[in-house]
């Protein structure tokens, strides 16, 4: 695998962002909403890929971290009257800190136990959203979350504005993730993923590398949650379950292509558009996720990203043949 | 003074004594060979010097400082090892492997030297998993060399190599040694070890049986009885 130069990756991401942003000006409200949700899930998936794809750890706690960001934003903006723009970084910091704590606990275990331990944390998180009605609204959900303040100079529909915010968050997350995985820490994360013993023997700072990866993914999961809460105006625990969001994330990243960053964006786009396009109920969409996950793990474990790059290489390689 | 002093190192796993109080001195700048039959404790010794496992008793003195230390610290002090079963980051390209190994290197230019020193120039963009066996072994050693060790621990680097590849490996080990790296070499291939090493120690059942020059070692009756003789007998079968 030859990595594309950084500036080229950023340029392609910026072009894709511009196209998606332009589309939100013309699409109807329903499709703009689909783009918004797709971008939020893509943000989650990119953050998740830093941990799963680049560091090799499967966390099932990320649905709860996403929820933590959402409820924190709901509380800060509605009960404490903070502006969304003040609440957003606070939510990122909070979930980052929570992620670091979870990581310190979870990395005491290895392999399967790591996944099981984070599963436990994901379940606890979801239960806390249910049993703390004073903070979260309990099973009835949190109602009346103020939307992000729209600047007067930006004369677009509110739905378009939300989509632009979600796409911007996705772009920022993608660039930050790109910088992270190409940094020294990112190289150390790869070493941890590939061979923990060898990494130790080469003096790689195993603990700090995977702590950084987990914290990074938690921060951006929290930011995605905060934005989701603010633009939805209503959130409920069912959006942050282990088998809902937690499992969907795994599906998005695996179907899109682990360890590529751009693959998970495609995965999110496909898996958000698919159930919407088919107009199926939420339970059926989870079924579709499960089936797709099975198909990809068996037939294309490297995901859509690898199918695309293999095809591109074949076309490119074929073109160069005399 | 010796760069590495091993003092009364003992390793017990439950009731089994893998090493029963071994002392060795490895002088700076030397290629020091360690042989012994299977189960003699050679790899255990390497594991302890490199900090992968802690000895149950004894000391390791490196460059005047008294250990043992955990593996992260031995690496920082300049002791780096390779593995018997070659370890490399198999899913990554050779280039990415070297980038990871040099991530803490103060001198990024050293990657080029390393590529040259380990003959990896032609395979930089190949995935490690797809490399020929001998090249993969070179990569494994290159990863260790990337850390610019003062003491390189080579655990059976010649296993599975053809005669020609062993010869090339010998030339490389001498070259790194000439560049100032002290080498502690554990090896089953006696001819290779005797050829490359300036000094040799023989372990048998967790104890030091003999230490001396390769010539003395090959002439020593008890070494022949325990190890070389057994080998010769095996070869006759």
UniProtKB/TrEMBL annotation, chain B:
**Keywords for this entry?**
ATP-binding, Nucleotide-binding, Transport
One GO MF term, please? ATP binding
Positions of the ABC transporter domain: 4-230
Has keyword Cytoplasm? no
Q: Which Gene3D superfamilies match?
A: P-loop containing nucleotide triphosphate hydrolases
SUPFAM superfamilies, per the entry? P-loop containing nucleoside triphosphate hydrolases
At the top level, the lineage of the source is: Bacteria
| PANTHER family per UniProt | CONSERVED COMPONENT OF ABC TRANSPORTER FOR NATURAL AMINO ACIDS, CONSERVED COMPONENT OF ABC TRANSPORTER FOR NATURAL AMINO ACIDS-RELATED
> What is the official name of this protein in its record?
ATP-binding cassette domain-containing protein
